[in-house]
Design goal:
seven-stranded mixed β-sheet; 353 residues; binds NADP nicotinamide-adenine-dinucleotide phosphate; alpha/beta; seven-stranded parallel β-sheet
Length: 353
């Protein structure tokens, strides 16, 4: 785990660097539109193309006066003209497009799940469309992967539930604080935009308004991603591996994720020890706010790139961690731009602060 934080510019101050040419595929989706909003005002990039599955060019009303360009039909050939391409596409389309772009020297930041899982068997189970993972792919949980993201050719941007959950639990696993014999329970709630813009029977207004529902029990691909993240963090401590029980819930909000994580700590690990660990890990991280026993709320992070983490520990070693993000920003497009900034070697906060 990388605890040192460097948010300062790495390019020499006297050098005039032209803006990086960036393009967005999937620009009409929920995460794609957030990307356009951020990138159109980002001082170090020039937004050269935005594409969707549509067959004719069109403008997005929400972007009037922010960005004057038109949304074009998807063209992998045109994407090659950019230095950096954001893919805000379904997994299958991203799996098909990304490897060839990387082969052509384009840096890719992929918001889909196509390249997130490292183990082939797990990837084949959850993302069967992914035929090839390019060399130089990094898992982009920014705060815990700064060096690998900065050097990557393809960044697999983490899922929204895994971002909220792993930022809270990975430091504890890496520090060797977890009781390896106790399961980790992740009880997470998401607003409806997490499912993308196309309504389904489950996400239709009349179905989710005034209700809360669990879904994907033992069968959600983000469970595999969280387990991978915990295993990776534990790898650094040399411990055995607790099982992650992940249960997502759909709540009647448009955006936001709250992940409540139940873990058991080794004997003698106190709330103060946890506070010290979080402080060491995130004390200088601009987008992680540590709120301790106050416990965080979705409304404090909605429309921001922050992840707020709170925690309580009782005398028997039971710990409850609560982590909140905006699924479309820290859980998708905001974190993707944070990763872009690291890849460009500029201040991590650029365009996001
Ligand atoms: N929503 C979240 O909170 C969230 C968080 C993290 C990661 N993600 C991931 O990010 C990706 C985008 O999610 P989203 O919620 O923004 O999805 P979305 O709202 O459904 O938007 C999908 C975008 O992809 C385009 N598209 C769909 N199929 C295409 C194809 N075959 N060729 C070209 N373009 C195509 C759509 O264009 P049209 O408008 O023309 O249909 C639209 O622009 C997904 O992989 C998702 O799993 C989402």
């Amino acid at each position: 785990m990388h605890t040192a934080v460097d948010t300062g510019a790495r390019r020499p101050a006297a050098t005039v660097v032209p803006p990086a040419r960036v393009a967005v595929a999937g620009a009409t989706g929920y995460t794609g539109q957030e990307l356009l909003r951020i990138l159109s005002r980002h001082p170090s990039v020039s937004l050269t193309a935005a594409m969707s599955s549509g067959t004719t060019a069109r403008r997005l009303p929400a972007l009037a006066r922010l960005w004057t360009g038109e949304i074009e039909p998807l063209s992998p050939d045109s994407l090659r003209n950019a230095e950096v391409v954001f893919l805000a596409l379904p997994d299958k389309a991203a799996a098909e497009i990304a490897p060839a772009l990387v082969d052509d020297g384009v840096l890719v930041i992929d918001l889909s799940g196509a390249f997130r899982l490292r183990q082939e068997a797990e990837r084949a189970r959850w993302y069967p469309e992914t035929q090839r993972v390019p060399t130089g792919t990094a898992y982009g949980l920014t705060e815990l992967a700064r060096e690998s993201v900065a050097a990557a050719r393809l960044v697999a941007n983490p899922g929204c539930y895994p971002t909220a959950t792993l930022l809270a639990v990975a430091p504890i696993a890496a520090a060797g604080f977890l009781d390896p014999h106790a399961d980790i329970i992740v009880d997470a709630k998401s607003g409806v935009s997490g499912a993308g813009k196309t309504p389904s029977e489950r996400t239709h207004f009349c179905e989710c308004h005034g209700s809360i529902a669990a879904y994907g029990v033992f069968g959600h691909r983000h469970g595999a991603e969280i387990q991978q993240g915990v295993a990776g963090a534990l790898g650094e401590s040399g411990e055995g591996q607790p099982v992650v029980n992940f249960v997502p819930h759909l709540v009647p909000l448009d955006r936001g994720i709250l992940s409540t994580i139940y873990v058991r700590l080794k004997s003698g690990i106190t709330e103060d020890a946890l506070s010290e660990l979080y402080q060491q890990t995130y004390g200088a991280a601009p987008f992680v706010r540590l709120v301790g026993a106050t416990l965080p709320e979705i409304k404090h992070v909605a429309h921001t790139n922050f992840c707020d983490i709170g925690w309580r520990v009782d005398a028997s070693g039971r710990a409850v961690l609560v982590s909140v993000i905006d699924n479309l920003l820290k859980g998708a497009s905001g974190q993707a731009v944070q990763n872009l900034n690291l890849m460009l070697g500029i201040d991590e906060r650029t365009g996001l602060w």
